[in-house]
Amino acid sequence: MRSHGTPGVTAALLVSTLLVAACGGGSTEPITVVKDSAGAVSFTGTVLPILRDHCKRCHDEDRKGGLYLMSYDGVRKGGKRGPAVIAGDPEGSQIVGSVEKRKEPHMPPRVFSALTEDRIAAIRQWIAEGAKNN
Ligand code: HEC
């Protein structure tokens, strides 16, 4: 009985995992921003994991709005409203407007966790730095 604290911790983790699942996924934990060798925010290391966590349910095979967010090419190609990203212009990029709920459609839809500020800041910075395939 040396590790009598463990079952409680395991149960707490299970409950929080179930809660997140019930809310439709999308973590609100602080993120680690991964940079490329030039010091720019990495698409593969930072942006794609955010999109996988929050957007995969509808922008993988389902391509809601004609938008596939599970690859660099998909993000750059955009959806039925046109490009999701304008390199160098985070403010004007549809994806940023959507997650900041400034532009329609607001994303992710209401019942899912909104993106935390550090996630939005990382996406903004990646776009500001040229939206590279890094
Ligand atoms: C539960 C499903 C769902 C999730 C999760 C979701 N979306 Fe969407 N998304 C939609 C639907 C449905 C549309 C089409 C709505 C419309 O055209 O008005 C859409 C459309 C969009 C569009 C507009 C595409 C275009 O060109 O018209 C953007 C941008 C977008 N989503 C970004 C995101 C991002 C970024 C995430 C993750 C942070 C996300 N979405 C998560 C369902 C979802």
Mean pLDDT: 89
Helix content: 40-55%
- The beta-strand count equals 0
Specify the structural class.
mainly alpha
H-E order:
HHHHH
- What characterizes the major β-sheet? none
Outline: globular
Bound molecules: heme C
**Count of discrete structural domains:** 1
Give the end-to-end Cα distance, rounded to a whole number of Å.
49 Å
Assembly state: single chain
| Unreliable parts | none
Strand content: under 5%
User: Tally the helices: what do you get?
Assistant: 5
Radius of gyration: 17 Å
Summarize the SSE layout with pairings.
Blueprint: H1 6-22, H2 43-59, H3 72-77, H4 94-99, H5 117-128
Helix pairs in contact: 2-5
Q: Could you explain the architecture of this structure?
A:
The protein is globular and about 50 Å long. The chain has one domain. It is mainly α. Helix 2 (43-59) packs across helix 5 (117-128). The protein has helices at 6-22, 43-59, 72-77, 94-99, 117-128. It contains five helices and no strands. The site of heme C has 24 residues, from helix 2 and helix 4.
